[in-house]
TrEMBL record:
InterPro entries: Phenazine_PhzF-like. The active site is at E44. GO terms for molecular function: isomerase activity. This is PhzF family phenazine biosynthesis protein. Belongs to the PhzF family. GO terms for cellular component: cytoplasm. SUPFAM superfamilies: Diaminopimelate epimerase-like (SSF54506). It comes from Halomonas stenophila. Gene3D superfamilies: Diaminopimelate Epimerase, Chain A, domain 1.
Length: 281
């Protein structure tokens, strides 16, 4: 079985977030896709199915299938452009388990950039001070980051608990074996610790064992949070991630404003091919 390894949110090989694209997914079972993702060893993999009216994709982490994710879809846009594209710029529609997403892909000045329209963000829940304090404590942080801004659950496809801090991202240290029950009690799937001064974030699997390099599905909610609370000025911003795992990355976000409302969040990043892979059938 053929596959492609790409780096997302980087214009240079061996930077950004790695992704394995499996373009020959027809006939694979869910168990086989999960096993291939673990074998590939990247944080996420995406499996592509060609249909008469377009493309379907399924996304897996090392632990589970996701209904939505950011950097796998940007990496998929690279594969679609390189395989089926005949112009410098293309638009794609891809059906996921629960929604259809719109992607754009473009070559410009020798760099490839992909964009994912994440749609209107949903602000699902604002934590009380006591509730937020429990989350800060679970990560070994004091409550200083919540003096001015609340902890809030925001989603553009995956619900993230945005936990604001004022610097000090290096001080995060998991104090619980698994964040999942605490996050679930607030309607969140994952946590995103966001430095509201430096526009930099960190996120992990819920056991704190693996830190993600650059998270497109979190960057949209983070940008929406910054906009809602008057921290982000203007319609474009850049979020840094990956510094603590030695792969500094940049996630570009465009905020689409309709009247007084935030109508769409568009997350972009560079993508570059690393290698062609082959797995035994």
């Amino acid at each position: 079985m053929k596959a492609k390894l790409v780096n997302v949110f980087s214009a240079e090989r061996f930077g950004g977030n790695g992704l394995t694209v499996f373009p020959e997914a027809d006939g694979l079972s869910t168990g086989e896709m999960q096993a291939l993702t673990r074998e590939a060893g990247q944080f996420e993999s995406i499996f592509v199915f060609r249909e008469a009216n377009g493309f379907t994709a399924r996304i897996f982490t090392m632990e589970e299938e996701l209904d939505f994710a950011g950097h796998p879809l940007l990496g998929l846009a690279y594969y679609l452009h390189q395989t089926f594209g005949d112009r410098d710029r293309h638009a794609w529609r891809v059906r996921l388990n629960r929604r259809t997403v719109e992607l754009t892909s473009a070559w410009r000045d020798g760099r490839f950039t992909a964009t994912l329209a994440q749609g209107r963000p949903a602000f699902l829940r604002t934590l009380t001070r006591d509730e937020a304090g429990e989350v800060y404590a679970a990560l070994g942080l004091d409550a200083g980051g919540r003096r001015n801004y609340p902890a809030e659950v925001v989603s553009t496809g995956l619900p993230y608990l945005i936990l604001p801090v004022a610097g000090g991202l290096e001080r995060v240290a998991f104090q619980v074996a698994d964040l999942s029950p605490l996050l679930a009690s607030h309607g969140a799937k994952f946590i995103y610790v966001l430095d509201v001064q430096g526009f930099e974030g960190r996120t992990w699997d819920n056991r704190g064992r693996v830190e993600d390099v650059a998270t497109g599905s979190a960057a949209g909610p983070a940008a929406a949070y910054l906009h809602k609370h008057g921290i982000a000025l203007g319609k474009t911003l850049s979020i840094a991630q990956g510094r603590f795992v030695g792969r500094p990355s940049r996630i570009e976000v465009e905020l689409v404003i309709d009247g007084m409302e935030l109508a769409d969040v568009r997350v972009s990043g560079d993508v570059i091919k690393v290698a062609d892979l082959a797995f035994a059938a």
